[in-house]
Amino acid sequence: MTGLADRLTPEQIEEFGREMDEIRQRVVADLGEADVEYIQNIIKTQRGLEIAGRGLLFAGFFPPAWLAGVAALSLSKILDNMEIGHNVMHGQYDWTRIPELSSQRFEWDTVAPAENWRHSHNYIHHTYTNILDKDRDIGYGILRIDPAQKWHPYYLGNPVYATLLAFIFQWGVMLHDLEFDRIVRGERTWSDNKEVGAKMVKKAARQVGKDYVLFPLLTGPLAPLTFLGNASANLVRNLWAFSIIFCGHFPADVESFTEEETENETRGHWYLRQILGSANITGGKLFHILTGNLSHQIEHHLFPDIPARRYPQIAAEVRAACEKYGLPYNTGPLHKQLWSVAKKIVKFALPGSGSQQEPTEPTTVSPELRAA
C-alpha cells in the first residue's frame, strides 16, 4: 500500500491495534439484556412478516393483496438472512446460551447450508479478508474484481456474470463452496465435494419444496400466483443481499493483499487489513437493520463476533481512530458505492486494466509494515 500506511511506524500499527482491542473489549463487557431483547424482537418481526406475507398470498386473486404479500415475504427473507441469520451464525449471540441464538444450531431461509457457509465465510473470508488466492470471496470464483487477477478472455463476460449472480445470489452463495475454479485448475476433484455437495442437495431440496411446492399447493387454485410470489420474494432478497455485500467489499479504493505481504501478521496488521479491505454504506436506522448492519462492513470486519446492532454505536470512534492515524474510512451512500462497484466490474472485464502482464500492481501493505 503506497502513501497512507507508509506513514505509520510499526509502533503506530500496534498502538492502532490496541485501540481496536479496547473498543471490542468495552463492547463485550457491556453486552446484556438489551442485546437479547433487540435480536428477539427482530426475530418476532421477521416471523410476523412471513406469516403476514404467506397469508396475503392466499388472497392473491386481489392484486394489492398479492403485492403486499410479496413485500412482506421479501422483508421477512431479508431480515432472516441479513440481520438474523448472518449475525447469529457469526456467533454474535453465543454468549447468551439461548438455543435459537446458537451459531451452531441456526439454519437460515436460503439454499446455502449453514454448516458450509460457516466454514467458507466465518473462517475463510474473515480470516483471510482480501488476501488474493486465500479469500475466495474476491470475485466469488467467477468475476475479475482485482487488478492482480490475470486477465483472460473469459472475463469479458464480467458484467453478465455479475448480473446473473445478483439475480440468483442465494444459489451463487451455495455453489461457491464447490470451488469450481479450483476444480478447473486441478487443485480439487469432484470427489472432494461429495460431502459438501450432499448437504447442498438436501438443503436446496428443502427450500425448493417449501417455496415452490408446499406453499403453492396450500393455496389451491392460486398455486401459480403463490409460486410467482415466492419467486419474487426470493428475487428481491437476492438483489438486496448482492448489492449490500458487493458494496461492502468491492467499491473503488478497497484494497487487496498477497499471501507474502501478510506472513507473520500481527494483531495490529490484521486490524489494518480489515480497515483497508472494507467499505461502509451510509443510511438511516431502518436501512442499517435491513442490511444486517453490513452497511457497517468496516466495523463488521474488525469485530465479526460482536452483535451487529453495536456497529453504529462504535462507528464514529473507529472513524476517529482512522483519522488519527491517517487511514482511509471508505463510506458513502448506496447509489455511490453500487455505481463504483459496477464501474469496477466493467473495468476489469477488459484487457489492459492492471493484469499481471502489466506493471500495475495491486495496492498492498508495504514491506515496512510487514516487517513490524
From TrEMBL:
InterPro entries: FA_desaturase_dom (IPR005804), Fatty_acid_desaturase (IPR012171). Residues 353-366 have a biased composition (Polar residues). Coiled coil: none annotated. Signal peptide: none annotated. Residues 65-331 form the Fatty acid desaturase domain. Residues 352-372 are annotated as: Disordered. This is Acyl-CoA desaturase. It comes from Amycolatopsis acididurans.
